[in-house]
Amino acid sequence: MRKFTLLFLLLTALFSSAVFAGTIQGLVTSASDDSPLVGANVYLKGTTKGAATDEDGIYVIADVADGKYTLVCDYVGYATQEVDVTLEGKLEQNFQMVEFLFSKTISVIANRAKERETPVAYTNVSKAKIVEELGSQDIPMVLNTTPSVYATMQGGGAGDARINVRGFNQRNVAIMINGVPVNDMENGWVYWSNWDGVGDASQSIQMQRGLSAVNLATPSIGGTMNVITDPTALNSGVQLKQEYGDGNFLKTTLTANSGLIDGKYAVSGLVVRKTGDGVIDKTWTDAWAYYLGAAWNINQDNRLELYAVGAPQRHGQNLYAQNIAAYSHSYAKDLSDYDPAALDKFPEASSGRLYNETWGPVSSSYKGKQAVGDDTFDRYDPNFLHERENFYHKPQVNLNWYSNLSNDLSLASVAYYSGGIGGGTGTHGSMKWNYNVGIESPSRFVAFDATIAANEANADGSLGILRNSRNNQDTWGLISKLNWKVNTELQTVFGVDLRTAEIEHYYEVRDLLGGDYYHRTSDSDFWPDGGVNLGLGDKFNYFNTNTVNWYGAFGQAEYTVDQWTAYGTVGFSSVSYKYIDHFKKDTDGGEFTLESDPQYGFQVKGGAMYRLDANTELFGNVGYVEKVPIFDNVIDDNNGVFSKNPETEKFTSFEAGANWRGLDNTLTLKGSFYYTMWTDRSLPLSVESAQDVFDIFFLTGLDQLHTGFELEAAYQPMPLFRFDLAASFGNWKHTSDASGEYRAVDSGTGELDTKTYLVGVDGLKIGDAPQTQLAIAGTVFPVEGLTLQLSYRYYDQFYANWDPTSRIVFEGDAPDRVQSWQVPSYGLLDFHGSYLLPFNVNGVTFKLSAHVFNILDELYISDATDNSAFNGFDKDHDADDAEVFMGLPQTFNIGLTVTY
Fold first, then answer.
1. Assign residue 459 a region: left if phi > 0, alpha if psi is -120 to 50, beta otherwise?
2. Strand partners, 354
3. What pLDDT is stored for residue 584 in this prediction?
4. Residue 751 — very low, low, confident or very high, per pLDDT cuts 50/70/90?
5. Which of 70, 85, 100 is the last residue in one of the domains?
6. Mean pLDDT, to the nearest integer, of 327-346?
7. In whole angstroms, what is the distance from residue 163 CA to residue 161 CA?
């Protein structure tokens, strides 16, 4: 903090005599319905000074000298407007744009909800809010102040965050960047380390909760998170931001904009460099990120845009949750349901809540190289080795084309490529372990020096190594939407969503740990009988290629008349999967191949909004989804077998709500109720269908219900103060048991036998996220350019995550109906502040920022798993049986932004 204060004083002293500059600002709306226009270009004719409107339709052009100008507002699809203005310090100029063509912007592809029109529950997070509150955390963390959203950093590694919406994890939340889905094509997960630069480039984030109004064939159950990157800026300039934080966090962000060139071309670019040791032990980060946006207004009817984003990175991970006592004995003892006897089994780590099991010291004299593919390099640090490290680069490139075919017909298309190369590390073979539990750590960790010594002494190569688990992928896709304006009341959209992905999976040797080679014998049918000696970068254990082919089509109609707006959407998808095992021979001597039949899914949804008056709207929506099984539920790529009974999972949803504005528009209230029933949820179970032959069988018939109320409020009684509130009260639970039969080998007789099972889950609460959430924030603007905010978040009714397969019993056995452990409620207080210094030097402005997360240094549990197989004590669903991640302690981030 002393460095921050000194920096502030120096800047003030150096530039206190600088000259003030003027500002032009205003609101850009559609003349037809007064809705804000996002991404409209407002600029001073004959100059490169301008700005794009934010998600509220507001633009601000700063650092303008007093004088007379022609102010131009341009929004493709609307008639351009020009107005002569005279600036004397500060000027407000609003525009109401008249539509004559369909809008050609990223919003067409992204399918964003609109104020007073779209009948779904949603929250917009503006660029200003992202800048003011994110503080270079993983991007989902800025959504924690929206209803029914729970995001955590899990183990604390850079990019290892997760997000949960209305009780559904990321696999059932559609994550999109500029309207393009980025959920993993095999399992639906999202790895946020791949999108590290997105937070810096984002213009806004819209979280549509529930089935959403997105018209892609991609079903979203918990919600749709749509990130929009900065529109190509029209004002030329350069911005440099330097940040520093706990754990030696250092981040440099450089942004450059070309400005509008010949009224047609513009380019924006961003480069990020991020390093740090991490707050949690050895969760270091070594990352780059980049973003490029370019636009070409070909003519009045055609526009091309190019977007590219990526984040090549590597970081140390903390993937192993621990028993509560491993982090703090005093915290564990204060829990009424923690058995004191467990304290002896789980000693407290010397690093307390910062403990990380996944690294160990190593002698700096060990000079062994590490490898990723053909590339070899030195380890990250000469004094320790990381058992679990993540390294990845997943670039995404979009080419958007917007074309007006006639006054009533337009086409918006995006062709995209998303690559991916990298993976994660781990151990393989016979390692030497440090079992000095209670002396050096509460759990075992790799004794690297002892392992290296054993490998060097072994005549037949390494006994244990570090391996890479590789995941290399190429995804190509096309989304195309034909917009037909039937008349002034009815608009329709028809489109396709086509994707194909090829993903390689294999182990490779990362570090031989002192040996000359790693001998393997039976991994591949194509190897010689005596096996092979593997060197750095060589593949082993498994090597397969998975292919996903996705074909989707959709149609949507929107009808607006008087106070009513209604829409309906139908979507259909066909997905097929292919598996090639490059280590296993097929009957013809080639590589073993499995190819599934197409798996079909569809969704039907619709809703309506009624505008009672200028300040009040009522809305509702319903929907039904049959979701295509993911790859892992159709083909078991661990054993190379088809699952016996893949089925679509069904979702039925209903939502109703109201929006109200009053007190001269100083108060806004939004409320909603939701009901989502998930039926025929499938649980995978490995079944021995013949002697030593295992198949994947799915236990079906599992139902769970998610209901809840959500409330948002914003109150700004005066320009100096704003109050925000977000609250959600959920009730997520299983509504019935599931039962059935399957055939499996009896362990006693070795014969096939019929197994009758019961999944005893009726009435058990859904875990993994708090069902009661509250967020309040107070923001003051004491002087122009200064923003100070305190925000408080409270979480309750938080049940530990649990696997329903743990509640399976067989005929004659009684089910275990004890609720999973309930995590203690907790609250967090954060501070955010920024100050745009009230001067500029030759057009250069300076902005200071500061964030303090968890101001009170609260000790709390952010993630928990019930009845841990590794860290549980007596397995009776209480505190001593959970494995957890503790939330991060008090941390800070400070920054200086210099803009020209």
1. alpha
2. none
3. 96
4. low
5. 100
6. 96
7. 7
